[in-house]
């Protein structure tokens, strides 16, 4: 989870940032497009494999919550999904050289049941820490979950630890750990189980 980022100034209506791992290998290119050099209109993420080839492209217009993801193999699109961070609204993938409609993105970890089931579990099990409530502490804990190929959870890390009250972080980790068997693993382009990260927000809001 340790990376370094190189961000170029805005030029020709876009800003490009390159993200490298600690071995100085390029892992992601993020391109942000601007209107009149100021207003962001679209963001494109390109993930790069160990051979330097782009295997995943994610596009999102800033005016929309949904995005489109493309998965590539040898430069050809083999799957396309439209949705958001929690669910696939529409998808299609190539199977035996034919396009098949699907609602599951097998290349990313996800929920075994549904988003609704997950949200209901959080609603029933999340407990607002007493001390945090007394101190009027609230906010959103952004969690990164390492989901193994069999769907089990490896590490859980707080992405925005510097911005959220510690007791809220502890409670978010506790409740996500309880949902440990509710995830399904991902596969790579070849269909092999792989370990990947999944990002989920846990909201704490005082009434």
Overview of this protein structure:
- The chain has three helices and 16 strands.
- It is mainly β and 207 residues long.
- The strands form four sheets. It has a nine-stranded antiparallel sheet, with no helix packed on it. A three-stranded antiparallel sheet has the order 12-11-16, covered by helices on one side. Strands 10-13 form a two-stranded antiparallel sheet.
- The chain is globular.
- The model has no long low-confidence stretch (mean pLDDT 89).
Write the layout of secondary structure elements.
Layout: E1 3-7, E2 14-21, E3 26-35, E4 39-48, E5 54-61, E6 67-73, E7 76-83, E8 88-95, E9 98-102, E10 110-111, H1 115-125, H2 130-134, E11 139-147, E12 153-158, H3 166-178, E13 183-184, E14 186-187, E15 193-194, E16 196-204
Question: In short, what is this structure?
Answer:
The protein is mainly beta. The chain has three helices and 16 strands. 14% of the residues lie in helices and 49% in strands.
**Number of helical stretches of at least 4 residues:** 3
End-to-end distance = 35 Å
Helix content: 10-25%
Let me know the CATH homologous superfamily of one domain.
TonB
Low-pLDDT regions: none
| Adjacency order of strands in the biggest sheet | 1-2-3-4-5-6-7-8-9
Strand content: over 45%
CATH architecture of one domain: 2-Layer Sandwich
Order of helices and strands: EEEEEEEEEEHHEEHEEEE
Q: How many E-type strands?
A: 16
The CATH topology of one domain comes to TolA/TonB C-terminal domain
Return the CATH class of one domain: Alpha Beta
Radius of gyration: 19 Å
What is the 3D form? globular
Structural class: mainly beta
